[in-house]
Amino acid sequence: MRLLVVPIALATVTLVPAVAEASPYAIQLTAQDLHRLAPEDTAAPAMDGAAPAPEPAAEPAPAAEPTAPAEEPAPADGAAEEPPAPEVDPTMGDPTEVEAPEEGEGEEGLEDALASGKKGDFNANAIGINGGIHLVPSYFLNAALASYANSLCRDQPGNWGEQNGLVKVDGCNFYFNGGYTRRVTRAFDVTVNLGYLHINPPDSLWLDNGEWDRDSCTENDNSPGSQCDIGAADYTRIDLRMFTAEVNFTGRGTLYRNDEVEIQLGGGGGIGVGVLVGDGILLTPLGPEPGSVNGDTCNTLEDTADFTKCTPRYYDENNHPGARVDVDDNGGMAPNGQISTNSSFASCGRDQCDLSDLEAFGTTEDGFTWPAYPIINIYGSFRMIVKDTFGITIDGGIKDGFFFGGGMQYYFGGGGKDK
What we know:
The structure is a single chain. By secondary structure, the chain is of the alpha+beta class. The chain has helices at 2-22, 31-37, 105-116, 138-142, 158-163, 322-329, 355-361, and strands at residues 122-135, 145-150, 166-169, 173-183, 188-199, 204-208, 234-257, 261-276, 280-285, 333-334, 337-338, 365-366, 372-386, 390-399, 402-416. It has a domain at 2-37. Strands 1-4-5-7-8-13-14-15 form an eight-stranded antiparallel beta barrel. The longest helix has 21 residues, at 2-22. The two termini are 110 Å apart.
């Protein structure tokens, strides 16, 4: 048995430490510790008959090192391991803690985000003003009249006018409006306007084509039935100033649109009424044997442009020229009042006569003078809107004559939706 102690001790020295180190509950041991742990064999006799050498006294074993804590059991298959909690830097605060926004801050940001993302919303209300010039084309008048006047925003008839009976031009006819527009859609508007329309051409002698043939007449002919009779002309005053109320319907297609500008082109129409504030249309016959206090001065069509040459004179259709003599003898006392010249001639300058003298004649007629006039609009329209707030329009068409003008609008209130 003694022969087996040494091999067993050697095997224990080499194998037991390796096994011990592999155990989760291992205690580190040295070779000396293992030798002390080997059992004593007192019963085995010595091989040569001698007494066995005494074994050294066993030293006390060192205190065992504390055992490592038992490992927690491994999680079941398929169960996810929980990540370790992050370490918190006291200087940085908890990264998982979200700072709450101040009151109203988040709401405003949300509203801004929603506003920027609103597709198709636009301001559907607008207030604005517009205005422009109003024209009655002379070629319309030329078809019926041998002599007439017009307002064309210039002071000379021009070559065409002189050849076509336009003997006098002065001033401008114009209009202006203010109103409210409702954009039903981006392409369709309804507008309500209140405004002023000014139609007031210069006073002139209007002579029908049947009473003066421009192609054959050169001088006045007082013979009965003559087609060259300047005396058949009427002193004509047109004063159609009026306040207006209109409703217009406009459709426009979009030529270009982005977040900054919207450009549209289209047209429309509308109706309205104009309440007369002017004198209307007044007609006073020039009378036979036309002339002036200076004699026989009204003989050609060009003379009709000057009222000091072709001056209206009182006459009685049933008893002339005797009636004129009576007025002259009476110091200008006409049937409807006193004439300021104390004669049968009205008081006139080159471009205008005294209306009270014409009324004293008692022959002035209200030709086509009504308290109110219908207004019919047909027009084309160009519009540009900047930032859905400021608008500019350019319009042209028919408004009891022809017109051309523009306007400005302010858009507000939202409420518009693309459909």
